[in-house]
Design goal:
The complex is a heterodimer. Chain A has 3 helices and 4 strands, in the order E-H-E-E-H-E-H. By secondary structure, chain A is an alpha+beta fold. In chain B, strands 1, 2, 3, 4, 5, 6, 7, 8, 9, 10, 11 and 14 form a 12-stranded mixed sheet that branches. A two-stranded antiparallel sheet of chain B has the order 12-13. Classes of the chains: A alpha+beta, B alpha/beta.
Chain lengths: ~90, ~450
């Protein structure tokens, strides 16, 4: 099972570390990361494997949302099914 | 493989363009709850609904969170209540409505539909009692939706029922006049009612359906409008239809995913996805604005019917391949008070009831959520219902009337229902009386299905 985490916000030191740190806390494996910085805005898309996650997925969603709010970022954590359904036949 | 563009497109649709699943509706058969004693019926009905739909809301909420897509409503539809009541000696329909209200509250659903009767050819046991109880039932409950099917392409139009419904709609408004006439906003009169519709107020669970089923209704006018805005004014209508189809495909895929997931988790068969574009009063989530994006200066102008027909057809073509089973109403809804663009067009006088009636011949449903003057006679309401039902009957499509007599208010004044039901001005009607025609009663015969000109 995989999920997509997207992070958008003002660039700052340690964003990637904070998000991936939280993933590793719950044994969520980061598979792929793409990130770009346009002017001073930071945008990252992270594909993660949640099969071995130690917490239910809905709790991970809440934690990521809260982590975003604490750091002035917008973090979405969504199951990959919705993207596959919408963009592949 | 997913790419960044697709991921960001989906997130943008949800965050900025109001993409959501409008409803997951659990259809529950109450055929096994019939009994000769009304108290026994109520006990069985309450037990069956609360048992079947116990986890509906919590399951909906967890799917919502995991997929990151809002599921705005969780609803229940039931076997038309008139059938459940048919065998009762004391057909106390209001008591049944109160039981349904209690069950809906226990389950935590937004609406429960199916306080209904199907009388397209005539009244059978329980039908008249149920219909006459509708105004009281809607006045003493908050979550119950009522509907009456008065005609079909095969049966014709039951004009006795049409005459009765004119009075019932008025009474429903009078009995809730102190609460903004909310009663008739929960009551719809249909022709060719579908048996698997997940949308309110016309949802009921047909007798040909399985014991329990999950149906989903998608939404997404904002997404279609944004896609058209991006395309710009230079594309021709073939290209515009193509953009709508592609967008409808994506929206429907999401509805299909949510419905399948809900069906799997609840252990209930998946029924259908309803492909309708359902507007909300939120700015940017409007069907009227799509029509304006296509090129009308305001919804209601000449050309509106043509643009709406194209939109409606393209939505169906795009959605059909995206879902394994399509059903319900499927098309574009045009509920006036629930659509920011329609509200604006009605206020400015550009959108009239005559134009709306023409629009209903090419789109989903019918004259929906229209406020009419409080002194409108019951016969005029019946005549509006008759006109609309005939459009459905002749064109072999579903049509419906949900008009709200604004008791004590005149043309130009406003009614505000709040929430998804929205707000809007009282619209003018033609004042000439159709009373003699309506009081004739009887049936309008079913139309020819050949020699179509």
């Amino acid at each position: 099972m995989r999920a997509v985490i997207t992070v958008v916000g003002k660039d700052a030191v340690g964003i990637l570390a904070k998000v991936s740190g939280r993933c590793s806390d719950h044994r969520v494996n980061v598979i792929e990361v793409t990130q770009s910085i346009i002017q001073d805005m930071f945008a990252m898309i992270m594909m993660v494997d949640i099969s071995a996650s130690t917490i239910p997925f809905t709790e991970l969603v809440d934690e990521m949302t809260a982590l975003g709010e604490e750091n002035g970022l917008v973090i979405h954590c969504m199951h990959e099914d919705i993207f596959n359904a919408m963009h592949t036949i | 493989m997913l790419n960044a563009k697709d991921i960001l497109e989906t997130i943008k649709m949800i965050q900025e363009e109001h993409l959501d699943v409008r409803t997951i509706t659990m259809g529950i058969s109450l055929l096994d709850c019939c009994d000769g004693n009304i108290d026994e019926v109520c006990r069985k009905v309450y037990d069956k609904i609360t048992y079947r739909a116990e986890k509906l809301v919590s399951t909906g909420e967890s799917i919502e969170k995991e997929l990151g897509i809002p599921i705005v409503n969780k609803r229940i539809s039931i076997t038309p209540a008139a059938i459940v009541l048919a065998g009762c000696k004391n057909k106390d329909a209001v008591k049944l409505a109160l039981t349904l209200e209690r069950a809906a509250t226990t389950c935590g659903v937004n609406f429960l539909g199916g306080f209904s009767a199907l009388v397209q050819k005539g009244f059978s046991a329980g039908d008249r009692e149920l219909i006459e109880a509708i105004p009281d039932a809607l006045a003493v409950t908050d979550h119950i939706c009522a509907s009456v099917n008065v005609g079909s392409t095969k049966a014709g139009i039951n004009m006795d029922a049409v005459e009765l419904m004119g009075r019932i709609v008025r009474q429903a408004a009078e009995k809730t006049a102190d609460r903004g006439c909310i009663g008739p906003a929960k009551l719809v009169v249909l022709c060719n009612a579908p048996e698997d519709n997940p949308f309110m107020a016309g949802a009921f669970h047909g007798v040909g359906e399985p014991d329990c089923v999950i149906n989903a209704g998608v939404s997404g006018p904002g997404v279609v409008r944004a896609a058209l805005a991006k395309a710009g004014p230079d594309k021709d209508l073939g290209e515009i239809a193509d953009i709508i189809k592609k967008t409808a495909f994506k929206i429907t895929r999401m509805g299909q995913l949510v419905a399948q997931e809900a069906s799997h988790r609840l252990g209930v068969p998946f029924g259908i996805v309803d492909l309708s574009l359902a507007p909300t009063p939120a700015v940017g989530d409007s069907v009227a604005y799509i029509l304006e994006e296509i090129g009308l200066s305001q919804c209601g102008s000449h050309g509106t019917t043509a643009a709406l027909a194209m939109l409606n057809d393209a939505v169906k073509k795009g959605g059909v391949m995206a879902s394994s089973h399509v059903g319900g109403l499927s098309g574009a809804f045009i509920p006036v008070t629930e659509d920011a663009g329609m509200i604006a067009a009605a206020r400015s006088g550009c959108l009239t009831i005559e134009k709306l009636e023409a629009m209903t011949s090419v789109c989903s449903v019918g004259l929906d959520m229209i406020n009419i003057p409080g002194d409108t006679p019951a016969e005029v309401i019946s005549a509006i219902i008759a006109d609309e039902a005939v459009i459905g009957m002749v064109n072999a499509k579903t049509t419906a009337v949900r008009v709200i007599p604004a008791i004590g208010k005149k043309v130009g004044e406003e009614l505000n229902f709040g929430g998804l039901l929205g707000e809007g001005p009282v619209m003018p009607l033609n004042g000439a009386s159709p009373a003699v025609f309506i009081h004739r009663g009887g049936r309008i015969p079913a139309p020819m299905q050949s020699l179509k000109n």
